[in-house]
Amino acid sequence: MARFFRKKLLVSALGGLLWLSGCAASTDGPWRDAAPDAPDRLWTARPEAQRIALASLLDVDFSVEGKCDSCHGASANYWEFEYDNILDSMAREFWPEATVLRFAPGIPPFAEGDSAIDGFVRGLAAWSGSGDGICQGVDSSLVALRYAVPPEIRKLTAKLSAKYNVDLLLLPGKTEVTLFPRGNEPKGSVRIVHRFSVWDLRRGEPLYRSCRDLVWKSPRGEQIDRMTTPLVLDPVGADLKTLRDGWVPPEPR
């Protein structure tokens, strides 16, 4: 399954933004920005020394508006499983020499009883700079990031970095998924609100942030209860590719 996701991601990331614009109508976004020096900090001179943590989705708000007896993949657990696997594949493609860690209790090297992980992640994901607040700006282009990280968030990231020896954190934020089946079949449309950020934990700053609020109508042969997470992760992959290939922030307006 992971191999399939990797192959799909590589193909999709190359044209993710173009593909998405043809299949989805954006209602509040996309909005995304990046630090001017993000490429140098995301891909360092010693990539083999990098440790990159992947936070799992927390508390996906998943609902089905209408009857769909055959929507077998219509559940938050299925969506989270699919998402986490694609995110893992994406990280290993973009940082092949780094150590990539699933940042969750019970997944080595983290102990089953390490409840601090979820607390740290929830605290960071709740901050308006990586939570609801990042959806308030609307811009269709990748723009230069302007932020003021409060002291309590810098303190939180310092704890994360020191306790777990992590350089970067890929942080999914609050996510809402609503399926609108048609004719009691897994066809119709999907609305997804998704927040995502990449953090430099050692310096306590976000390097990339994204918010998308989109509606996707399934083409012929596609089921709305399966493989919907690429709708939000493919564009993130396209943005990361742009950053890796030498992004230059636009001039201030």
Description of the structure:
The protein contains seven helices and nine strands. With 253 residues, it is α/β, with parallel strands linked by helices. Strands 1, 2, 3, 4, 5, 6, 7, 8 and 9 form a nine-stranded mixed β-sheet that branches. Strand 8 and strand 9 form a beta hairpin. Helix 1 packs across helix 7 (230-244) and helix 5 packs antiparallel against helix 6 (151-164). The longest helix is centred in the middle third of the chain and has 19 residues, at 76-94. The termini are far apart. The relative contact order is 0.24. The model is unreliable at 1-28 (pLDDT under 50).
What characteristics describe this protein?
disordered N terminus; 253 residues; 9-stranded mixed sheet; 34% helix; alpha/beta; 7 helices; single chain
Average residue pLDDT = 83
Shape by Cα distribution = globular
Find the count of extended strands (DSSP E, 2+ residues). Answer: 9
Helix content: 25-40%
Run of helices and strands: HHEEHEEHEHEHEEEH
Distance between the termini: 44 Å
Tell me about the biggest sheet?
A: 9 strands, mixed
The secondary-structure class comes to alpha/beta
The number of helical elements comes to 7
Question: What percent strand?
Answer: 25-35%
Low-pLDDT segments, ≥5 res: 1-28
Q: Evaluate the radius of gyration.
A: 18 Å
